[in-house]
């Protein structure tokens, strides 16, 4: 089964179109918390090495990274049914949402206030990796407020904006990890920085 799973992972990653629509997730009050399906980043981004941006396709193109639609899940889970009974039960729920053509009502965890301007695109394109702000998600079994690496406070944003980040060829220099693969970039540590870049401290950059 493990073998079959990995083959499927490779196939689907090759063939599934990246033009899938992501769905917005719902914000919720801190405290009450269960996701509709026990989704594990360890299984997907960790063990099976599915790249972050295979599922969060909007990270480099837009403000939001987006949560993948059930179509993305079904691409694999039409075939991958799970090994243990517990896995099979949870995967059956995924198939159920697909059969009913319902959106999986994921609850949104990371949520900065509307009066703050934040865009993934700018940060990803300059070369930051997901780990920079989210930690190593491939080790997070279940995302919750407790696993959130950063408070997403103004101090979190501003202190990084004040740092001088070494750059190489106009991008943040390594050692960084490939956002797409969550694996270290070969030789990243040996790249020689040729300048540096900072974010802005101007109030109007983040508060328009
Ligand atoms: C197989 C698809 C898939 C892959 C691969 C994946 N994710 Fe996710 N991710 C999801 C789903 C589904 C959710 C919503 C459910 C949840 O919170 O567990 C989510 C939630 C998240 C959240 C929290 C969203 C919120 O509401 O605040 C972050 C942050 C995140 N992923 C980052 C990553 C990073 C970084 C990687 C790569 C290391 C990654 N993801 C790989 C599917 C995926
Ligand atoms: C690229 C292929 C792929 C995609 C896309 C994918 N999965 Fe999986 N999923 C797997 C594999 C492989 C397993 C492990 C199966 C096994 O060990 O038998 C798995 C296991 C699971 C399990 C069982 C619990 C566990 O962690 O082992 C659940 C639940 C699950 N996936 C939900 C989802 C959801 C929800 C999505 C969409 C957001 C999704 N999967 C997208 C490949 C994928
Ligand atoms: C510079 C910091 C930073 C980096 C780098 C970053 N994120 Fe985020 N991420 C955030 C913040 C801040 C939020 C909350 C955004 C909001 O509420 O509007 C967030 C929210 C999310 C969410 C929840 C849904 C959404 O889009 O609001 C997901 C999923 C996510 N990030 C995935 C990723 C992935 C995948 C990467 C790497 C490709 C990544 N992030 C890189 C800061 C970052
Ligand atoms: C890991 C470091 C880091 C973190 C954390 C970070 N930023 Fe940035 N941010 C930067 C850098 C560096 C730039 C400059 C990128 C460029 O010039 O292309 C930038 C650019 C921006 C821009 C674009 C500025 C412009 O000139 O248009 C905005 C807006 C922004 N950040 C908001 C935020 C907010 C809001 C947060 C917190 C939720 C945040 N950033 C967290 C490093 C960071
Ligand atoms: C790099 C982005 C960034 C910059 C620059 C920035 N802020 Fe903020 N600011 C934030 C974020 C993110 C929050 C939301 C914090 C939270 O929800 O805890 C915030 C919150 C605030 C709040 C509300 C505080 C509260 O407790 O509710 C005020 C007022 C504020 N900022 C004023 C300013 C002023 C004045 C400046 C210029 C000196 C400034 N900010 C510069 C990101 C920024």
In brief:
This protein has helices at 2-15, 41-47, 52-55, 70-77, 85-99, 120-125, 130-134, 154-162, 203-206, and strands spanning 26-27, 107-108, 165-168, 171-172, 195-197.
Report on the architecture of this protein.
The chain has one domain (2-25, 35-206). A hairpin with a 2-residue loop joins strand 3 (165-168) and strand 4 (171-172). The protein has helices spanning 2-15, 41-47, 52-55, 70-77, 85-99, 120-125, 130-134, 154-162, 203-206; strands spanning 26-27, 107-108, 165-168, 171-172, 195-197. It is built from nine helices and five strands. Helix 4 (70-77) crosses helix 5 (85-99). The chain is globular. The chain has a three-stranded antiparallel sheet with strand order 4-3-5, with no helix packed on it. Bound molecules: heme C (HEC) (5 copies). The site of one heme C has 14 residues, from helix 8 and helix 9.
């Amino acid at each position: 089964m493990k073998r079959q799973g990995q083959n499927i992972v490779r196939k689907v990653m090759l063939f599934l179109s990246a033009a899938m629509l992501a769905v917005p997730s719902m914000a919720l009050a801190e405290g009450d918390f269960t996701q509709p399906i026990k989704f594990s980043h360890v299984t997907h981004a960790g063990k099976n090495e599915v790249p972050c941006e295979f599922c969060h396709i909007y990270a480099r193109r837009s403000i939001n990274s987006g949560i993948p639609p059930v179509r993305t899940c079904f691409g694999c889970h039409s075939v991958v049914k799970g090994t243990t009974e517990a896995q099979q039960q949870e995967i059956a729920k995924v198939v159920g949402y697909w059969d009913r053509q319902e959106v999986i009502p994921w609850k949104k965890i990371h949520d900065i206030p509307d009066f703050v301007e934040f865009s993934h695109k700018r940060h990803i394109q300059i070369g930051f990796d997901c780990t920079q702000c989210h930690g190593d998600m491939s080790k997070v079994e279940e995302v919750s407020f407790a696993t959130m690496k950063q408070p997403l406070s103004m101090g979190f944003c501003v202190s990084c904006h004040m740092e001088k980040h070494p750059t190489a060829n106009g991008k943040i220099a390594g050692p960084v990890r490939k956002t797409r693969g969550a694996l270290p970039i070969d030789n990243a540590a040996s790249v020689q920085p040729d300048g540096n870049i900072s974010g802005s401290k101007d109030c109007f950059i983040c508060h328009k």
